[in-house]
Amino acid sequence: AQSVTQLDSHVSVSEGTPVLLRCNYSSSYSPSLFWYVQHPNKGLQLLLKYTSAATLVKGINGFEAEFKKSETSFHLTKPSAHMSDAAEYFCVVSFSGGYNKLIFGAGTRLAVHP
Amino acid sequence: AAGVIQSPRHLIKEKRETATLKCYPIPRHDTVYWYQQGPGQDPQFLISFYEKMQSDKGSIPDRFSAQQFSDYHSELNMSSLELGDSALYFCASSQTGQSYNEQFFGPGTRLTVL
Lengths: 114, 114
Known about the structure:
heterodimer; A: 114 residues; mainly beta; four-stranded antiparallel sheet; B: 114 residues; 0% helix; globular
């Protein structure tokens, strides 16, 4: 079965410090992996996606993620947090054998303090 | 660039009433997906359509039905509404053959059942 586990439900950082949001996946097939961000009362915005072209993926707003097959991980990082980064972040897996439906992790709420 | 359009954006209904949510995919996208996000929850896949045929089915209640029309727009019909149906309903679209069938999300319809 395919699943996604986000290891932290809440992460709190100070503005200007690094961000690390952890995600582990389980998939019998070669997965596609995504990170989506959802600001309060807003829709889902794609931050970045892993599609097997490169293990280090750069996304929007300075975010990046590294696919590590040996660890089945796809952690999201950013060198320096900004107040506007405060939001809910979802790690998502999709696989071609599942008609491409997205399977969401439970989400990590990122708080950024001045 | 054109995005996924959902209507209405907000909907308030009474218990046991019916509701219809509409989704207009990005032009030339042939696949539509519906997701339900309850309060404080991660989005859950409901159902998807490819070329007007149901392609996959998730945790969609029997009280709900959906279809995709010849112009590729989709409608989610919900009957005998329950309080627990209050949620944010997302529609996403993708184009078959596009890189890993990336899904583009609409802004969502917020359904409140009183």
